[in-house]
Design a protein that fits this description.
The protein is α/β, with parallel strands linked by helices. It contains 10 helices and 10 strands. The strands form 2 sheets. It has an 8-stranded mixed sheet with strand order 1-2-4-3-5-6-9-10, sandwiched between helices. A two-stranded antiparallel ribbon has the order 7-8. A hairpin with a 4-residue loop joins β1 and β2. The longest helix is centred in the middle third of the chain and has 13 residues.
């Protein structure tokens, strides 16, 4: 495993394994170590796992007032420019999978998507987006929520055990061993606190489905049985029907199944490469 800095140090990368290179994008408020268990289960694949801007050891995402998912795209485009590979296979989990799908629509260098537990971004109604605009405007005077500090690293990782998407103690330790800081108040997660604020804008469901129809490269999607997406019903069915070149596989486990039970996911990822 080795660490690499890109874009003048703004984006940090962890390279794991050797073999066919894959660019990996993690989920919201996770970091590059999200792919560490998966890499251990397939060391013959070279995973270039980014810390997305605002996460892990990367610099904060450039924001004015409010943020939206599209702000990550130019940064990721610059990352691919600097790497200068001829083509790209993107491996994405959750937010990272959504960003990979959006990038595939706008960047012809992407030849394959391997996506874990996400298909298209969260959507909003027209009225809901107007409400978001109102909240974003009101937030201009608000400081981001304060950091939470922990007296020990054990206390820090235990937060992830009981989070919105619970992790086993072993996975929580792996994820929380990166992107942490220490000062005179204690240990803390380094992610950009502004990401906790509402996004200023979301696509409508019609726009999301239009986006999915524009994905020309193969998209391999892993759904996890105990994840909210795996039980999304008709909305998911409608989105699945939009993707021109799609294969779907289902696996047991929750939202972080790629960390908790990586071996079957690793076999599937290898079969798609």
């Amino acid at each position: 495993m080795k660490s690499i800095s890109l874009l003048g140090g703004q984006v940090q990368v962890v390279v794991m394994g050797q073999g066919q290179p894959v660019l990996a994008l993690h989920g919201f408020l996770d970091n590059a170590f999200s792919f560490k268990p998966l890499s251990a289960a397939m060391p013959d694949v070279e995973i270039w796992a980014l810390d997305l801007p605002g996460h892990g050891n990367s610099s904060a995402l450039a924001m004015a007032e409010g943020w939206s998912i599209t702000q990550w795209l130019p940064v990721l485009g610059h990352v691919m420019d600097e790497l200068n590979w001829d083509t790209y296979t993107l491996l994405g989990h959750s937010l990272g999978a959504i960003l990979a799908q959006m990038l595939a629509v706008v960047d012809s260098r992407i030849e394959r998507l391997i996506c874990l537990d996400a298909l298209g971004p969260l959507s909003e109604s027209d009225e809901g987006n107007l409400d978001r605009m109102q909240r974003s405007y009101q937030q201009r005077r608000d400081s981001p929520g304060g950091r939470r500090y922990y007296s020990t690293t054990d206390a820090l990782w235990q937060v992830r055990v009981g989070g919105r998407f619970p992790l086993s103690p072993a996975s929580a330790r792996v994820l929380s061993s990166r992107g942490v800081g220490l000062n005179d108040r204690g240990w803390f997660h380094r992610y950009d606190r502004r990401l906790r604020q509402d996004s200023a804008w979301r696509m409508t469901e019609n726009q999301v489905q239009g986006l999915l129809r524009r994905i020309e490269c193969p998209l391999d999607l892993a759904l996890f049985d105990d994840s909210p997406l795996g039980a999304a019903g008709s909305v998911l069915d409608d989105r699945l029907a939009c993707v021109p070149n799609l294969s779907v596989a289902r696996f047991p486990g929750g939202h972080h199944a790629h960390m908790e039970t990586p071996q079957p996911l690793a076999r599937w990822v290898r079969s798609r490469l």
